[in-house]
Design brief:
This protein has 188 residues and is of the alpha/beta class. The chain has three helices and nine strands, in the order βαβαβββαββββ.
């Protein structure tokens, strides 16, 4: 889709700060589970970079799986309807599960995922979100592990995208420009 205006990216969180915070979250997870195995479930696609960095910093036995959902249609606002696009590959029954999200926004998607995953009888079910936008919350839901609380801005980088672009940015940036065509994988 051609852009009608120039896109501007303004760094919000720099790479070094992200690295420090990911290490701190991993240390907290390591302390909380004290030698137990944890199973990380990454929400595709946005959480893949956060999950990859996080798992390398956790000093425990770990395993991973992925799930994909969509709550965004064409635009930056959630449609309010969550669709499961890719389910887990294996059972989580009896496991210490940490759902790894890129961004906690309205809470609609996270609420849906927690409901679906809790029905699968994990031993524990917690949430690690890189970013939290509490000002946008529609559903009451919280993450046990949060990287950063951010203002109500559209952000890209470090896995977050605009129309599948900018995921590879090392910083998290505020995106200003033409209205995005879609952000189908941003979790709410």
């Amino acid at each position: 889709m051609p852009l009608t205006r120039k896109v501007r990216l303004r760094p919000l969180i720099r790479r070094a700060a992200i690295e420090r915070r990911v290490r701190a979250v991993a240390r907290q997870i390591t302390r909380d589970f004290r030698g137990e195995r944890v199973h990380l479930v990454g929400v595709l696609k946005g959480a893949c970079i956060f999950l990859a960095d996080l798992i390398r910093e956790i000093d425990l036995e770990t395993s991973i799986d992925f799930i994909a959902v969509s709550s965004y249609g064409k635009g930056r606002e959630s449609s309010g309807q969550v669709r499961l696009l890719k389910d887990l590959d294996s059972s989580i029954a009896g496991l210490n599960v940490i759902l790894v999200e890129d961004i906690l926004d309205t809470g609609m998607t996270l609420n849906y995922l927690l409901r679906v995953l809790s029905q699968r009888r994990p031993r524990t079910l917690r949430v690690a979100a890189l970013l939290d936008k509490p000002s946008r919350r529609v559903r009451t839901v919280a993450a046990e592990y949060v990287g950063f609380t951010i203002p109500d801005e559209f952000v890209v980088g470090y896995g977050l995208d605009f129309a599948e672009r900018y995921r590879n940015l090392k910083d998290i940036c505020i995106w200003k420009g033409a209205t995005p065509a879609s952000r189908a994988d941003e979790s709410a």
